[in-house]
Amino acid sequence: MLSAHHFSVQDVRGLPTAFVATYGTGKPVIALLAEYDALEGLGHACGHHLISGMSVLAALSIASIVKPSAGTLTVVGCPAEETIGAKALLVRKGVFRDVDAAMMIHPADKTEIIKLSLSLERFSVVFKGVSSHASANPWQGKNALSGMMSLFQAIDATRITLPAGNKINGIIKQGGTAANIIPDMAQAEFFIRATDLRSHAVLVKRFTAAVRGAAGAFHLGHTIKRLGNVYFPLEPNTALARVFERQLTGLGVRIDSFFTDKELGSSDIGNVSQAVPAIHPTLAITSAGCPAHSEAFRIQGNKPQAYAGMRTGAMALAMTVLELYKNKALLSNIKKEHLEKYD
Hints:
By secondary structure, this protein is α/β, with parallel strands linked by helices. It has helices at 48-65, 86-92, 144-158, 197-217, 238-250, 269-273, 295-300, 304-326, 328-342, and strands spanning 8-12, 15-24, 29-35, 72-78, 101-103, 106-108, 112-115, 120-128, 167-174, 185-193, 221-231, 257-260, 278-279, 282-284. The strands form 4 sheets. It has a 6-stranded mixed β-sheet, with helices on both faces. The longest helix has 23 residues, at 304-326. 44% of the residues are buried.
């Protein structure tokens, strides 16, 4: 679709489902992020089909009215936000090196201009023990599941001492094959989140110490493997957010809040936001109180109200890009705010 509307589309080496599509030349370089993965077992219960739709619709509308000499519009195809965090790889591969500002909208049950997000690091933990008959000779075994249960108890006890916003969540993925066999292997997966990268590093150290302690207590071998990439906390650009807010208000959209640090998740947009000025507002496409990652959100995300929201979001993105094209002083202030944080 983008190729048919005069965008030059290129693949991203090493990420077969990512792409970079560009229209125009020169400065400014504005990136619209098209996120398009889904949830295993649920499908589009997080609205990524609408994210990609908003960004692509905005890009097509801009290309239909703006001369190529006005600047460079880039649509970045962003896969795997729910799994490996491909935007972290895209940042490292230099996709955003020349970008002046990046933006996308996430569907939600509320419209919030700045909604913070937490860091995220995923770990797989495997405990290796020795199997034996659970009744006849259990003393000859080393119970990997008992070690894993001890780890979960340690983490549960740790939670009351964690700073606000820091989280460790986990599930046991494998814990044995039969009740009369001492499990010789247990596997779990953990998500670690924090409000900032310094706190994140401390939390990872506490977590790995707990893993070693539980393994040692039950005489188990253990491995800790990181899954995917580290997601950075979102660092929103307030100046850019104000531009987007004006466009959304002009379209008659009711804004629930300009800033919130409540009910936070994580997204690899955080990695982009620490590389270039970026925003990641939410736009209500469901009834209030409908949680993402639920069957109810998946159903509401495929109704006319959701697609109407997609069109509204596309218009707000397009109008924001056009504002940045024509107002160089505004873009300069946006970049100045970013540099003050990261220069």
